[in-house]
């Protein structure tokens, strides 16, 4: 059995999510290969070759792969897919975008967002916003899978010494063009990889008030997150959204400030190790999952907490 | 331009589902069903394209049991001109739905298909991308802005860390994210009007599609539950607990 993991990267750095997917591949068992499809991405291939448990890296380097367009990336995966029993993507924006294209072309079902490997053909995945866990078995010849990164500890970044093999890059599909990208610049850790996350909800009241969380995040070295309600209200950018339809996080410490705890938010953070909730409503459902709850006015409690830490 | 909008009937987002005691699935008997929220955004977007003059016709499609007619009527109350129900009692998985939609696209020849990015029941996030692959069309998932520009469509997408803008040659597939628009409330006159709009029913066999499920569900279980911890009286106690009990700061 050999497994192909599709690398997540920005043509310079290998994304941590790739190592979570490699860990899932190791749990399935077999030879683990990584495909780095990019442009000027040799450094990424070299990093992938170092990852523990990887036995071969395929590097497809070409202009068509520079921006990770779904049409080209899927074609690249299909060009090398023959012979692999499993094709794994991290369940990131890119992985979720491309994996179903690959599965449909192979005429196989995709198994989305797996959180556990039962055997080479049986996997566990959350449904209904994580309110149920389904164990599903695939009879398809190739298993196309996306991996929930928080469910698998990343494979070590070093320790491997895989060979890097170059493969031809596919031609551009000509149907989709990259126009531009606006990525938020931040010195804070990445939300999905941070060991501490401070999240705000509708209780913050405004985008201006949301800044009260900055000092707390600075103090804790935390990433900032938000509930869907806060994002909908325009208090925080959409890529901060934690929940069923946003990011899934599982940090060591999750501090929920002014968040009531809708099912869809809990789906995104309930696997955190320690949860702290600060809310003035003692009946808020967030207290049902919090290890430590503080019923207080957040505008007093947060500055006090910053002082006390 | 013709726009096709697939809509799914799902358990309402406010319902907390329960796992059946025999672990064969979740109990959806007698619970409120609604249109998948992302699909509502898709219908709204298609309707706005029509109102702006960019689209001439909006066709809503639903695949599933007979009651999906209600979901189609809701889509028509928002603004779809007609509905197509692909009726079956078989459990439909994303690949099967994508194949049914491909058959309808071949027949209806739309220039744009707008779908929700994911359904809130199976949380698969696959159907739009699969349909794009089967048709060899370009795709823009998680759209937060859509602008039709002649024979192309420019789409701003929500991605990890920010936004990305793509220009796709039509025909194309778009899937919606939350911030694309806020669907309108359907009014009583529009609900009445929707009842008179044409609704056609077809069967998967007539479209030449085998919808047999590929994934077998062996078991559905409750996730490990997280019990409530303690309520602390003040910030000082909280900091003490975090430092000395949880040891996370």
Task: Explain briefly what this protein structure is.
Chain A is an alpha/beta fold.
Write structural notes for this entry:
- The complex is a heterodimer of chains A (309) and B (249).
- With 309 residues, chain A is of the alpha/beta class.
- Chain A has nine helices and 16 strands.
- A seven-stranded parallel beta sheet of chain A has the order 5-9-4-1-2-3-10, sandwiched between helices. In chain A, strands 13-12-14-15-16 form a five-stranded parallel beta sheet. Chain A has a three-stranded antiparallel beta sheet with strand order 6-7-8.
- Chain A is globular and about 60 Å long.
- With 249 residues, chain B is an alpha/beta fold.
- Chain B has six helices and 13 strands.
- In chain B, the strands form two sheets. A nine-stranded mixed beta sheet of chain B has the order 9-8-7-10-6-1-4-5-11, sandwiched between helices. In chain B, strands 2-3 form a two-stranded antiparallel ribbon.
- In chain B, α3 crosses α4.
- Chain B is globular, with a radius of gyration of 21 Å.
- The mean pLDDT of chain B is 96.
- Classes of the chains: A alpha/beta (309), B alpha/beta (249).
- At the A-B interface, α3, α4, β5, β7 and β8 of A face α3, α4, β7, β8 and β9 of B.
SS class of chain B: alpha/beta
Q: Name the shape of chain B in a single word.
A: globular
The major beta sheet of chain B can be summarized as: 9 strands, mixed
Spatial strand order of the main sheet of chain A: 5-9-4-1-2-3-10
Classify the helix fraction of chain B into a percent range: 25-40%
Largest interface: A-B, 90 and 78 residues
SSE blueprint and pairings:
The complex is a heterodimer of chains A (309) and B (249).
Chain A lengths: L1 E5 L9 H13 L2 E8 L3 H9 L5 E6 L8 H11 L5 E5 L2 H13 L4 E5 L1 E4 L2 E6 L4 E7 L4 E5 L15 E5 L8 E8 L12 E5 L6 H4 L1 H9 L2 E4 L1 H5 L20 E5 L5 H7 L4 E6 L12 E4 L2 H11 L1
Parallel strand pairs in A: 1-2, 1-4, 2-3, 3-10, 4-9, 5-9, 12-13, 12-14, 14-15, 15-16
Antiparallel strand pairs in A: 6-7, 7-8
Helix pairs in contact in A: 3-4, 6-9
Chain B lengths: L1 E5 L2 E3 L21 E3 L1 H15 L5 E8 L3 H11 L3 E6 L6 H15 L3 E5 L10 H9 L3 E11 L2 E8 L2 E8 L2 E5 L11 H9 L2 E4 L12 E7 L8 E3 L2 H11 L4
Parallel strand pairs in B: 1-4, 1-6, 4-5, 5-11, 6-10, 7-10
Antiparallel strand pairs in B: 2-3, 7-8, 8-9
Helix pairs in contact in B: 2-5, 3-4
């Amino acid at each position: 059995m050999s497994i192909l993991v599709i690398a997540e990267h920005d043509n310079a750095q290998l994304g941590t999510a790739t190592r979570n997917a490699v860990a899932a591949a190791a749990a399935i068992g077999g030879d683990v290969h990584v495909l780095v499809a990019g442009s000027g991405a040799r450094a990424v291939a070299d990093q992938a070759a170092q990852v523990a448990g990887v036995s071969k890296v395929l590097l497809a380097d070409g202009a068509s792969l520079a921006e990770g367009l779904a049409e080209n990336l899927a074609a690249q995966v299909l060009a090398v897919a023959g012979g692999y029993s499993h094709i794994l993507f991290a369940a990131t924006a890119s992985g979720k975008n491309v994996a179903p294209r690959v599965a449909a072309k192979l005429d196989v079902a995709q198994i989305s967002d797996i959180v556990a490997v039962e055997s080479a053909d049986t996997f566990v995945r959350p449904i209904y916003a994580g309110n149920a866990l389904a164990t599903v078995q695939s009879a398809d010849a190739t298993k196309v899978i996306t991996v929930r990164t928080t469910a698998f500890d990343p494979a070590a970044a070093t320790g491997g010494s895989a060979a890097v093999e170059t493969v031809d890059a596919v031609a551009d599909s000509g149907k989709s063009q990259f126009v531009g990208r606006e990525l938020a610049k931040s010195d804070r850790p990445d939300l999905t990889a941070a060991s501490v996350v401070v999240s705000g909800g509708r209780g913050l009241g405004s985008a201006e008030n949301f800044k009260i969380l900055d000092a707390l995040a600075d103090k804790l070295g935390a990433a900032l997150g938000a509930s869907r309600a806060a994002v909908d209200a325009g208090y925080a950018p959409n890529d901060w959204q934690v929940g069923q339809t946003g990011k899934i996080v599982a940090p060591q410490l999750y501090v929920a400030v002014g968040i009531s705890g809708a099912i869809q938010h809990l789906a995104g953070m309930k696997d955190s190790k320690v949860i702290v909730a600060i809310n003035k409503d003692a009946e808020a459902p967030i207290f049902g999952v919090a290890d430590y709850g503080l019923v207080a006015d957040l505008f007093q409690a947060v500055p006090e907490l910053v002082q006390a830490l | 331009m013709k726009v096709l909008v697939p809509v799914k009937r799902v358990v309402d987002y406010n319902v907390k589902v329960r796992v059946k005691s025999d672990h064969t699935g979740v109990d959806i008997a007698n619970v409120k069903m609604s249109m998948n929220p992302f699909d509502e955004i898709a219908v709204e977007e298609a309707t706005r394209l029509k109102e702006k003059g960019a689209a001439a016709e909006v066709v809503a499609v639903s695949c599933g049991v007979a009651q999906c007619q209600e979901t189609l009527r809701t889509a028509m109350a928002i603004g779809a001109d007609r509905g197509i129900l692909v009726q079956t009692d078989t459990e439909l998985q994303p690949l099967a739905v994508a194949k049914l939609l491909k058959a309808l696209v071949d027949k209806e020849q739309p220039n744009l298909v707008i779908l929700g990015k994911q359904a809130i029941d199976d949380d698969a996030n696959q159907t739009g991308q699969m349909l794009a692959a089967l048709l060899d069309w370009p795709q823009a998932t998680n759209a937060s802005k859509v602008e039709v520009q002649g024979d192309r469509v420019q789409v701003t997408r929500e991605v990890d860390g920010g936004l990305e803008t793509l220009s796709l040659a039509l025909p194309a597939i778009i899937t919606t994210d939350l911030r694309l628009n806020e669907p309108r409330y359907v009014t009583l006159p529009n609900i009445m009007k929707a009842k008179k709009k044409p609704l056609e029913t077809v069967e998967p066999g007539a479209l030449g599609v085998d919808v047999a499920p590929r994934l077998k569900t062996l078991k559905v279980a409750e996730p490990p539950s997280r019990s409530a911890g303690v309520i602390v009286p003040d910030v000082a106690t909280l900091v003490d607990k975090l430092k000395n009990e949880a040891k996370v700061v």
